[in-house]
Write a structure and sequence with these properties.
With 492 residues, the protein is an alpha/beta fold. The chain is built from 19 helices and 20 strands. The strands form three sheets. A nine-stranded mixed beta sheet has the order 7-8-6-9-10-11-12-13-14, with helices on both faces. The chain has a six-stranded mixed beta sheet with strand order 15-16-20-17-18-19, sandwiched between helices. Helix 7 packs across helix 13.
């Protein structure tokens, strides 16, 4: 372990605001590295285990935001790491920003430790976007591991980055970054980076679409080799054009068509690299086949493969190739990739009807992509929940042609039913109503089954958060899958 790695935190006071997963990880790493840790949280008892485990950790808790804010202003010292879930408009954030200390993210602190540690030469490959981050980062990790690298997916998925950096031993990191995490991240130097897409989301946290986009754009800052963007995303192109990257960094475009120089694209069912090949003005390299992704299509049917899965694969391939991964590893990694829970998982096929769990599809953008590849009049859509103030009219208009029927969730079903009446009056729908999460799952599956016909796909892709009726999108997806499994057993 280098002296610099330990000295970065030794004998300093690190203030931690918010003892969620990343906050606890920061507190533990900082304390073990010799820092004095002062933590703040609204929940009584938060951090009790930390105080018992580590002698140099003090915890202040207070349910009153103003009182807790006063404690932050009074006790914060040296360096302050704030939870990504605490919005800039909150009293806690305002108090933290007013304290006479530097305020950073867990990601920023992790980078500073990485940059002086024994794995400083191991590249970070960073990914953000409104949708597709988790799929892409796990695809990338699968590809890197197929190359034989120790390269976990970290950040907004998996272990907190600071924990992985502290443990060491990695060859590369596939890093998923949310806009919350990027907000106070400033010195990360990724080898390659991408913003997959941009659509209105989390505006209550950021305050405006412009502020949200500005935080997403930080993923490109300081990029050393490849600033990657989807040619279909004008927002991402603008981010790349305005990014303050390192000298020699190239812009690499992604396309679903035949690629031009410095692009990745699709040719005759193959993913083709014209960016990281010798004499790219003349040459191209096939790095994978779309057949490598067939297992990710609903019911395993390649023709039903959602277009956004292809986009995610292009992004993962480009990031991996920037890191020197061989074509064979790209293909192998995509074939071996399994999607994360609740993201377009085919949980069963019953009487030639595919049942797909896409509970993680909590935005209109994600749901539109999930439904777009289906044939007309072939989808029973389970939709609705907490719309987070979004207008779902345009989504309903887009997906109307593929719908056979709709099962509507949510305390306020009108977010779905009103656009259906306007844009898809021919499509029948039912409203699940209210009840316990288990009752809701049983009802939604039964109603969907009554609508579906042979060859159809029933897909839970709500375009909404789950909080109005479920604990989380995980619970919503788990209960859906359990009810489908029960139905499969009954039919079988």
């Amino acid at each position: 372990m280098s002296d610099s790695f330990s000295e970065l935190l030794a004998s300093r006071t690190v203030s931690v605001v918010g003892l969620g997963v990343s906050g606890r990880a920061v507190a533990k790493v900082a304390a073990r590295r010799g820092a004095k840790v002062i933590a703040f949280d609204a929940k009584a008892g938060a951090g009790g285990a930390l105080s018992k485990e580590l002698d140099n950790v003090s915890v202040f808790t207070d349910a009153d935001p103003k009182s807790l804010a006063d404690k932050i202003r009074t006790h914060a010292r040296d360096l302050l790491v704030i939870s990504p879930g605490i919005a800039p408009t909150s009293a806690l954030y305002q108090a933290a920003s007013a304290a006479p200390v530097e305020m950073i993210s867990e990601v920023e602190l992790a980078w500073r430790l990485h940059a002086v540690g024994p794995n400083a030469a191991s590249p970070w490959l960073t990914i953000t976007g409104t949708d597709g981050k988790t799929t892409t980062v796990n695809m990338l990790a699968s590809i890197l591991q197929a190359q034989g690298l120790n390269a976990p997916a970290v950040g907004n998925v998996g272990k907190p980055i600071i924990q992985v950096v502290d443990e060491g031993g990695y060859d590369a990191l596939a890093v998923e970054l949310s806009s919350f995490q990027l907000h106070l991240t400033k010195s990360v130097e990724p080898l390659a980076s991408i913003c997959l897409n941009l659509a209105a989301d989390h505006l209550n946290w950021h305050g405006s679409l412009e502020a949200y986009a500005a935080d997403k754009a930080k993923v490109y800052a300081n990029t050393k080799l490849a600033a990657i963007y989807d040619l279909a995303s004008e927002a991402a192109l603008k981010m790349v054009q305005e990014a303050d990257v390192r000298e020699g960094c190239r812009a690499i475009g992604l396309s679903r068509a035949v690629p031009e120089i410095s692009q990745f694209g699709i040719v005759d069912g193959a993913i083709v690299d014209r960016a990281f090949v010798p004499l790219r003005n003349k040459n191209a390299q096939i790095v994978a086949e779309l057949e490598d992704l067939a297992h990710l299509a609903p019911g395993g049917k390649l023709e039903a493969l959602p277009s956004h899965i292809i986009s995610d694969a292009l992004a993962a391939a480009a990031l991996a190739r920037a890191a020197g991964v061989q074509p064979e590893a790209v293909s192998k990694g995509l074939r071996e990739f399994t999607p994360g829970a609740h993201r377009l998982q085919t949980v069963a096929t019953i009487d030639n009807v595919a049942w797909v769990d896409d509970s993680k599809g909590t935005t209109a953008h994600a749901t539109a992509a999930a439904l777009a590849s289906h044939a007309p009049n072939s989808v029973v859509w389970i939709a609705g929940g907490d719309a987070k103030g979004a207008d779902l009219s345009e989504l309903v208009r887009q997906v109307a042609p593929v719908l056979r029927g709709v099962v509507v969730l949510g305390v306020h079903p009108e977010f779905i039913t009103e656009p259906l009446a306007k844009y898809a009056p021919q499509v029948p729908y039912t409203i699940v109503g209210q009840g316990s999460p288990t009752e809701l799952a049983k009802t939604m599956v039964a109603q969907a089954a009554s609508m579906a016909q042979s060859g159809d796909c029933v897909i839970l892709s709500p375009a909404c958060a789950s909080w109005d009726q479920f604990v989380s999108y995980n619970q919503r997806g788990d209960l859906f899958a359990q009810e489908v499994a029960a139905r499969a057993g009954q039919v079988g």
